[in-house]
Amino acid sequence: MAMRFSKNKEFAVLLFSADHVRCCMFRRDSKGVRLKAYASCEHDGTDPAKAWKQVLHETGYSRVCPLMISGALKGGTFFRCTGVRLAPKAMRNALEFELPQRLLQDAGNHELEFVELAGDPGSVPVNVYTFPSADLENLAAMITQSVRKADYFIYPLLALRESDGPVFLPEAEPDFYFADGEWHSADELPPDWFSCWDRELRREFILPEDSSFQPREWLGCLLTARLAASDDVRHTFGGLNVLPKQLRPSRLRNQLRLTALLIVLLIANFGWGIAGQLSQHHKEYSSLVAARNRLRTQVTAAQRKLKTAEKELRELSRVVNQSAGEYDVIGKLAEFSSVLPNNVMVMNLRWTDSSVDLTMRSEAESLNVPEMLRPLKFWKMEQIQQRRRNNDVTSMIMLKLVPAEEKK
Predict the structure, then answer these.
(1) 400 Cα distance to chain centroid
(2) pLDDT, mean of residues 47-58
(3) Which of 152, 234, 153, 159 is nearest to 201 (CA)?
(4) Distance between CA atoms of 13 and 26, rounded to whole angstroms?
(5) ∠ CA(55), CA(175), CA(208), 5° rounding?
(6) What is the mean pLDDT of residues 9-13?
(7) Cβ atoms of residues 181 and 206 within 8 Å
(8) Domain 5-259, CATH 3.30.420.380 — does that match?
(9) Are 212 and 196 in contact (CB under 8 A)?
(10) For the whole model, what pTM was predicted?
(11) Residue 101 pLDDT > 80
């Protein structure tokens, strides 16, 4: 997990040594990176975790703030080499291949961290710090006892640039100082070596003005903070991942969870919007379907009414268009009734423009219908059917008459 501490408003640096612990709290604001608080505590080595907790408490550290642990491990070795610019994993593999030559021993049980400096991609200076795996286990135990979690362990000299002057950190290496990419005996250290550092540190940080703060005593913390806060040094935080994952805070994972939650909320909000639009469209569609069904019902009813009206119109037209002679219906019926004997009853009669259809019932044993109808003036018989059921004295007569003048 790579992380740029320069993007955090606050971060803390805890520097440890065999008998001393220092802690600095930094805050980035519009004017620069400010040393917000600092504290130190000596200890006799019996309970260093207590000293760690004390200085963190005095500086106001909280676990939401990134924390870098700095210092020198017992079997650690720092050096600078040159190589081509590579991805962090490939660079680590290349440095592990070079370690046996640097350590003059098997490097199988060693860990390393590195920082690439600015330079030509084909010839990149690389600061490297390597140490036995057992030292890392001891450091992890100390972190667990004191602060439980830490973001990185950083050896302070990893922050050095090629342009930096000599640097002497007695808490890291009491017998040597580092300059021009190499170690030199502390006996040869120039007396005014820190003057350039004092100017450099005050240029990069907003430091306390009171006389109780001496930048030289806090050089290790300030160098580590420079690595975290500077945008000038080209460093790869992928080369600093030496702490076990269970010791590192899940800051990025929390950010990813928050980002994922925001994405889910955005998708849900978008989904609710789409669902709302679909629901509205469905309501409108249902309303249109209901309106269509109502119109269909109304059209069907109107069609039925139209058919009834057309039928009534045809019947009315038939009545209106009847010939004048047909107005003497009563006289014609009276004439027909006059020829019927008493034992004949008309059961059904249908009158049209061209004929009269009758159904009659008679109890006469024999009835000569044609002879019975001969006296009619206006009618002629055209068809006749006469039936009598077995053992039934009643006969049914179906008769069709036509006007006498139409008789052929």
Answers:
(1) 89
(2) 95
(3) 159
(4) 8
(5) 35
(6) 93
(7) no
(8) yes
(9) no
(10) 0.62
(11) yes
